[in-house]
Amino acid sequence: MSPSLSAKFLSGVIEGFYGQPWSHAERLELFAGMAAGGLNTYVYAPKDDLHHRALWRERYPDAAATALAELIDACRRKNLRFIYALGPGLDLRYADDAELDCLRGRCEQLLGLGCTDFALLFDDIPDRLTAADAARFGTFASAQSQVANALFRWCRDRAPHGRFLFCPTPYCGRMAGRGLGGADYLATLGRELAPEIDVFWTGPEIVSPTITVPHVREVRALLRRPPMIWDNLHANDYDGRRFFCGPYAGRAPELRAEVGGLLLNPNCEFPLNYVPLRTFAEFVLGTETWHARDAYLAALRAWLPAFATVGRPITLEELILLGDSYYLPHEDGPEADALLCGVTRLLDGHELPPADVTAFRLQATRLRDLCGRLAELRERPLFHALCRRIWELREELDLLLRYVDWTAVRPPPTAPCQSDFHLPGTYRGGLVARLQDLLVPQPDGTFLPSRRHPRPPGVKATS
User: Fold this and answer.
1) Phi/psi at 298 (5° precision)
2) How far apart are CA 322 and CA 316, in angstroms?
3) For every one of its 463 residues, what pLDDT tens digit does the chain have, with 9 covering 90 and above?
4) DSSP character at residue 239
5) CA angle 278-283-284, nearest 5°?
6) Residue 252 CA from chain centroid, whole number
7) Is the dihedral of CA 94, 97, 99, 104 positive or negative?
8) How is domain 308-408 classified at the architecture level of CATH?
9) Single pTM value for the model
């Protein structure tokens, strides 16, 4: 840990995504990597563990409880803090004391398994109260604060040194700015929530390109405590077509002194998190300078042995090109960006020097063929995590190369470009693809109807 960080500073991984939870073996591998990298905390919060969210009132059955006990013990042996998170907010009746008994019952079961640290999550839920809840607590923030305080005090009586964390309903700047949770939600939370409870925050956005010190200080003033950063920079559960293996970036080292901790919620597919976790750990433990690209290149170099194949070896340069194609949510890596710029200029009708056209063809062919060669990976779980995304990339590159070759022969203006491998219905087909074609996202975050799909006659725009 960086000598400038408090001993209370939490750094590590949140398994907090929507999708298939990681396997027991993957979690054990994660703990070993976290310990080796100097991280100290694992938060168990997979949204699709039914007992974490949908069945929060029910105890874990014996087999699942045994597996959790093994995870808790594995963390302890690696000197990692295991935090169990519970998300009751979808249907919690705040004014019903029996509901608090259910929350205590779940924590009691986890205490019996060896867990002493807990989190109560109220993210991604409707921000409304029943009449009974409103009559007792008045506001959404007050209802959540009082329930959290009661559970915190109960847990603290049984585990005096345990940590307790809380996720608010508006957990980023945009949500708070739009009034989610009601007026003065964060200020009420800061005033009423027990000061020992840490509060999660994802930054200006759910997936924040940057998290700055001034932003965190504003949030800190409202919450009356340093926020605990739940960082979704590498999360991909909102887009099944992508994953993110770029570096931990967009955060300055000075941020570490302003927050209660940094916890990364990464890709759903565990094998794809090598670079995110390695660069994140280096950031947490690093000095006052941070060079994200350098850390990324070093991490790819260390990851390269996992890409051993039964055929021709994959080179570091090829892995960099692949990684740049799946970099970060708001940016491509330099190699992918250069490829995209080149083909965009070609499609826009620019007369490029023959050397530039040749360079595009070589790079696009190299990436297309690499996607095919990854099927020869010896590390089969890694290939299975990659395969659907890289095959889509391969198909798009193949089509573009065919189009560039077609334009090179200067066809007549009316001649169509066709591909026997990209046919209607089977290529970019299905309802989702057609729905995506209806509204076009604009650079400012707004949406406009596609010109190919004008509003039907007689249908008026809503105000």
Assistant:
1) -65, -40
2) 10
3) 454 577 799 999 999 999 999 999 999 999 999 999 999 999 999 999 999 999 999 999 999 999 999 999 999 999 999 999 999 999 999 999 999 999 999 999 999 999 999 999 999 999 999 999 999 999 999 999 999 999 999 999 999 999 999 999 999 999 999 999 999 999 999 999 999 999 999 999 999 999 999 999 999 999 999 999 999 999 999 998 999 999 999 999 999 999 999 999 999 999 999 999 999 999 999 988 999 999 999 999 999 999 999 999 999 999 999 999 999 999 999 999 999 998 998 888 777 788 888 889 999 999 999 999 999 999 999 999 999 999 999 999 999 999 888 887 766 767 788 888 888 888 888 888 888 889 988 988 898 998 765 555 555 554 4
4) -
5) 100
6) 19
7) positive
8) Up-down Bundle (1.20)
9) 0.93
Q: Is 165 helix (H, G, I), strand (E, B) or coil?
A: strand
Q: Are 140 and 179 in contact (CB under 8 A)?
A: no
Which residues have C-beta within 8 Å of that of residue 168, sequence separation ≥ 6?
Answer: 122, 123, 141, 144, 181, 185, 186, 189, 199, 200, 201
199 bridge partner residues = 166
Q: Which residues, in sequence order, are CB contacts of 272 under 8 Å at separation 6+? A: 243, 245, 382, 385, 386
Spell out the domain ranges in the chain: 10-290, 308-408, 430-455
Task: Tally the C-alpha atoms within 13 A of residue 235's C-alpha that lie toward its C-beta.
Answer: 23
d(CA 371, CA 167): 39
Q: Are 394 and 368 in contact (CB under 8 A)?
A: yes
- Give per-residue burial for 320-337: e unless 16+ CB within 10 Å, then b: bbbbbbbbbbeebbebbe
Cα angle for residues 431, 436, 441 (degrees, 5° grid): 170
Q: Check 124, 332, 337, 369 and give the catalytic one.
A: 124
Pick the CATH number of 10-290 from 3.90.1150.10, 3.60.21.10, 3.20.20.80, 3.40.630.10: 3.20.20.80
96 catalytic? Reply is: no
Q: Is residue 319 packed enough to be buried (19+ CB in 10 Å), middle (13-18) or exposed (0-12)?
A: buried
303 phi-psi bin (left φ>0, alpha ψ -120 to 50, beta other)? alpha
Nearest-angstrom CA–CA distance, 281 and 285: 6
User: How many other C-beta atoms can be found within 10 angstroms of the C-beta atom of residue 269?
Assistant: 21
